[in-house]
Structures are given as structure tokens and as C-alpha cells.
Amino acid sequence: MALTNEQVQLVQKTFMEILPISDLAAHLFYTRLFQIDPSLKPMFKGDMQEQGRKLMQMIGMAVQGLSVPSEIMDLVADLGRKHVDYGVIDVHYDTVRTALMWTLGQGLGADFTPEARAAWTEAYEFLAKVMKDAAAGKK
Q1: CATH of 5-136 among 3.30.420.40, 1.10.490.10, 3.40.190.290, 2.40.30.110
Q2: Nearest 5 degrees, angle CA 60-CA 30-CA 76?
Q3: What is the pLDDT along the chain (139 residues), one digit of tens a residue?
């Protein structure tokens, strides 16, 4: 993992700032995701508010797990394999990253510093690689 301890702490600290507005953050994320790539919308069926809560829970688990990544590897890999069943392909991870960074910028405002953006980018790339590698193994 390329993240430094300082980056892990910064991701965890800024995520704690997002938690009080987690429903709004999830709404912003999905709105932006579908603006960037409307073809993703059919992948999401059912209650989007509930989907947003699941998203925030999963992000929270991953963010906390960055302190001891070995403890979340299997869970993150399983998530990557499950995403194949939903029709997720590698290029979608870039779209999600773009929507996530935009959402963090909206939610954190001035606290989404260049350092925070870099830390979140590293964290996202690390987790996305685990998911994509696991998905590639599920053929």
C-alpha cells in the first residue's frame, strides 16, 4: 500500500467530517455519478436512499480498515467480485473516483485540501486495485 500513515489519518479524519451529512453526500455522489455516465443508472435498482446508506457504510469500513489493510482485503476483494455480477467493468472505477472526489470537495469544502485529495486518491486507487484484481480472477 502506497499510503503513508499521515495520509491514512487524513482520509479517516475527513471521512469523520462527512459522516454528519452522509445521506446528503450519498445523494450528491449518485447524482454526480449518473451525470457523468447515465448508462450506470440501470445498475442501481431499488431504494437509492438505502443504497446510499450502504455506500457510506462500505466507505466507512474501508476507511477505518486502511489502518490495518490486511484485515479488510478479503472483504474488499469479495466486493470486487460481486461488482462483476452487477456489470461493473474497470472503466467504471474511474467514473466512480471522479464522482467521489467531486462529492468530497462539495462536502468538505476548504477542508478538501490538495493533501486530502491526494490521500483520498491514493486510498481509492489502492482499494480499487484490490477490487479489480479480484474481479479479474472471477472469470
Answers
A1: 1.10.490.10
A2: 35
A3: 679 999 999 999 999 999 999 999 999 999 999 999 999 999 998 899 999 999 999 999 999 999 999 999 999 999 999 998 888 999 999 999 999 999 999 999 999 999 999 999 999 999 999 999 999 985 4
In angstroms, the CA 134 to CA 1 distance is 16
- What single-letter amino acid sits at 118? A
Beta strand residue intervals within 47-134, DSSP E: none
Output the nine-digit C-alpha cell for 56. Answer: 457510506
The structure's pTM equals 0.93
